[in-house]
Write a structure and sequence with these properties.
The protein is α/β, with parallel strands linked by helices. It has helices at 16-23, 48-54, 86-95, 115-124, 136-142, 176-182, 198-201, 245-267, 286-294, 306-315, and strands spanning 13-14, 29-33, 62-63, 103-107, 130-133, 173-174, 191-194, 221-222, 229-234, 237-242, 276-279, 300-303. InterPro entries: Rhodanese-like_dom (IPR001763), Rhodanese-like_dom_sf (IPR036873), TST/MPST-like (IPR045078).
């Protein structure tokens, strides 16, 4: 049976045990290390690709470069890891031997941090068989699963796949113009959830990126990405996993309240319309919220440029901003 058949689709969030079972199956499978690091001034620089080559890795894993598979240049204000074009995405997927029916499993070395961004990218381009490894590489190792610790000079080469150029699904990625219009719609506006830390949302601490206003998009609500994750420490290594479904309901209900929850249920579901938009600093951790609400059956969109775009526009007087000082 083809993986394009909904009944056979794998879960969006997959456990180490589930992935280990699939490694020995004959199913078309591609595992991608989608680790990405936010390198800050005055801190050691980490290179995700070099760490992938050094190992350890999940056996057979390839590397997905989030920044390389992205749109660049003046058309996107030179912002980082913006959604790629359909042609660039198709080229990158084909280079990994991925076809439309391949089950793609993405993970990162944080636990859950950057992998959801790559999963969202695949999903937004209509790739149905996509999963995020819950807890990433650390959870895989903590579960006692085998790893490949051999140091590599380059990523393994493999036969190129065939991936037809896709189009973004309607409503999955929001533009600045759409977000600006949404601020004028009052009670009929779509809910916007901001994944940045609460202090940045409130404008109480400066943004880590230069030339940006502090605060948040008018009428947005704060849902820090760590609020939907659980922290673990195993063998001296810290990592995160997604909270269980009942805990996610508590988090979302506490932030939205009864009226907001009713609006969310009314406006969208994982099988239907898009009911909420997620934003963050640069479109990375917003995808953690997307993954979390997918566990509740709520489908969401990403404001791709996020605060990197809005905050810069606001600093230039081109966009409104709210903060606790507003």
């Amino acid at each position: 049976m083809s993986l394009s058949t909904s009944a056979s689709l794998p879960p969006l969030l997959i456990s180490p045990r589930q992935l280990a079972a699939k490694l020995n199956s004959k199913q078309s499978l591609c595992i991608l290390d989608a680790t990405w690091f936010l390198n800050m001034p005055n801190a050691p620089v980490r290179n995700a690709y070099k760490e992938y080559l050094k190992g350890p890795r999940i056996p057979g894993a390839l590397f997905w470069d989030v920044d390389a598979v992205s749109t660049k240049g003046d058309s996107v204000m030179n912002l980082p890891h913006m959604m790629p074009s359909g042609s660039l995405f198709a080229q990158a997927a084909a280079a990994k031997g991925i076809s439309r029916d391949t089950h793609v499993v993405v993970y990162d070395s944080h636990g859950i941090f950057s992998a959801p961004r790559t999963a969202f990218t695949f999903s937004a381009f209509g790739h149905k068989a996509i999963s995020v490894l819950d807890g990433g590489l650390p959870a895989w190792m903590a579960a006692g699963e085998a790893v490949d610790s051999a140091s590599l000079e380059t990523e393994p080469s493999l036969s190129r796949g065939t991936y037809p150029e896709p189009s973004l699904e309607s409503g999955r990625v929001r533009s600045f113009q759409e977000m600006l219009h949404n601020t004028t719609l009052g009670s009929s506006a779509q809910i916007v959830l901001d994944a940045r830390p609460k202090e940045r949302f409130d404008g109480k601490i400066p943004e880590p990126r230069p030339n940006m206003a502090s605060g948040h998009i008018p009428h947005a609500l704060s849902m820090p990405f760590m609020s939907v994750l659980d922290k673990h420490e195993v063998n001296g290594q810290s990592f995160t996993t997604m909270k269980p479904q009942h805990e996610l309901w508590k988090v979302v209900s506490r932030i939205l309240g009864e009226e907001g929850m009713e609006k969310l249920r009314h406006d969208g579901s994982a099988q239907g319309s898009v009911g909420v938009t997620f934003s963050c600093g640069s479109g990375m951790t917003a995808c953690i919220l997307w993954l979390a609400l997918q566990q509740l059956g709520i489908n969401g969109a990403i404001y791709d440029e996020s605060w990197s775009g809005w905050g810069r526009r606001a600093a230039n007087g081109e966009a409104p901003v709210e903060s606790t000082q507003s």
